[in-house]
Amino acid sequence: MEKTTIEYARQLDQQDVLANFKDEFYVLEDKIYMDGNSLGLMSKRAEEKLFTLLDSWKRFGIDGWTEGEHPWFYLSEQVGAQMAPLVGGKKEEVIATGSTTTNLHQLVSTFYKPTGNKTKILADELNFPSDIYALQSQLALKGYSPDEHLVRVKSKDGRFLDEADIVAAMTEEIALIVLPSVLYRSGQILDIAYLTKEAKKRGIPIGFDLCHSVGAIEHDLHTQGVDFAFWCTYKHLNGGPGSVGGLFVHEKHFGIRAGLSGWFGSDKEAQFDMSHTMTHAEQAGAFQIGTPHVLSLAPLIGALEIFEEATIQRVRKKSLQLTEYFLMLVETELKEHAFTIGNPVDESRGAHILLEHEEAARICQALKADGVIPDFRAPNGIRLAPVALYNTFKEVWQTIQTLKTIMEEKRYEQFENKRGIVA
């Protein structure tokens, strides 16, 4: 059967062992949603758990902290334990708390210990801006110039990082390393095991931003000896807009004092002693700061139950199949329309496709007008993410056909070539 036909796409869907999970989600009517790497769709279980937690507030009032199906006092630990298998951590090493950037601030304030000439932080020039802003802020708080003390590894092509260049930058001046696990634009997966091993050889703490990998690819943070990691939960984990983030701290660091202290970092048994001398928690819970956002944690309980059933191994396998099919169709159906594939074409790619085109902003608007939801990334990137839990091979085929029609009929010309306020 010809692989570029809709019949072939349907055949792939019939063979899909995760096909039934699509029914778990509220799929947008008359839309093909290819933006799950920015915000995952809402699942019915996420909605159910939110209502469950709202009901516990209604029924128990303040006693909801210790009563009901999901007592709020232990909710961060409960959700952390649910996330732990997705990052390859022990349940004690993972906590659901804060947001990506507040967790990064917490972890840098804890692990960045400049001494002597060892004062610099190593990052990269392709990282998501929020991470860079946080690192610059932390350096300034310590009295160091961000321009001089934030080392950003250069990219040779603006898309990918050479891991040899990262290792070469691990000099005696580096006090801390913070890198993405997956580059947010190109989808390149960095070799966490290799980079961690090289950092350890040099005695440099290393941490990773998992925002674009958690829930999409497998991780093994504990075994690899990663010092810390942090992530959001509203992309591939489908936790909802503004859902509570997560962090990992390796058990070898248990007992270290968090850089930013707050009472929810206390030992649970001592927290309500109300002493001005803090009794710190001994596990990842020590890195909490304030009261958990209960109603933003609730949807994650349901969303993570789906991962427990689907398994990250099967999610990753289907994700690779979806993006492989996507790439094949780009090469065969769009070869006359000046698109450049900006993501790795081997299995070092994450869970999204990056197509580059000089008219990218206009093309994204045309896609939306025709019912396909993409994601624009300046200056010329179209990110398309077929999510294993709710996208189909048929939808990949339809997306490519829609894109082909837009290009052939030049439908994009009716739009301005600039991004919206939220892109």
The strand line-up of the biggest sheet is 2-8-7-6-5-3-4
How many whole angstroms does the radius of gyration measure?
A: 22 Å
Can you tell me the residue ranges where pLDDT is under 50 for at least 5 consecutive residues?
none
Quick check: average pLDDT? 97
Helix percentage:
25-40%
Strand content: 5-15%
Name of the CATH architecture of the largest domain: 3-Layer(aba) Sandwich
Write out the CATH superfamily name of the largest domain. Answer: Type I PLP-dependent aspartate aminotransferase-like (Major domain)
User: Count of DSSP E strands?
Assistant: 13
Category by helix and strand content: alpha/beta
| Spatial separation of the terminal alpha carbons | 38 Å
CATH T-level fold name of the largest domain: Aspartate Aminotransferase, domain 2
Q: Which features would summarize this protein structure in a list?
A:
about 425 residues; Aspartate Aminotransferase, domain 2; 2 domains; seven-stranded mixed β-sheet; 13 helices; about 35% helix
Protein model, in words:
With 423 residues, this protein is of the alpha/beta class. It folds into two domains: 6-30 and 312-414, Alpha-Beta Complex (Aspartate Aminotransferase, domain 1), CATH 3.90.1150; 48-310, Type I PLP-dependent aspartate aminotransferase-like (Major domain) (Aspartate Aminotransferase, domain 2). 36% of the residues lie in helices and 11% in strands. The chain has 13 helices and 13 strands. The protein has helices spanning 6-14, 44-60, 75-87, 100-111, 129-141, 146-149, 163-168, 192-201, 221-224, 294-310, 312-333, 360-369, 393-409, and strands at residues 32-33, 94-96, 120-124, 150-153, 174-180, 206-209, 228-231, 246-249, 340-341, 353-356, 372-373, 375-377, 381-384. The protein has a seven-stranded mixed beta sheet with strand order 2-8-7-6-5-3-4, with helices on both faces. β5 (174-180), α8 and β6 (206-209) form a beta-alpha-beta unit. α1 (6-14) runs antiparallel to α13, α2 runs antiparallel to α10 (294-310) and α11 packs parallel to α13 (393-409). It is globular. It starts with 5 loop residues before the first helix and ends in a 14-residue tail after the last helix. The model has no long low-confidence stretch (mean pLDDT 97).
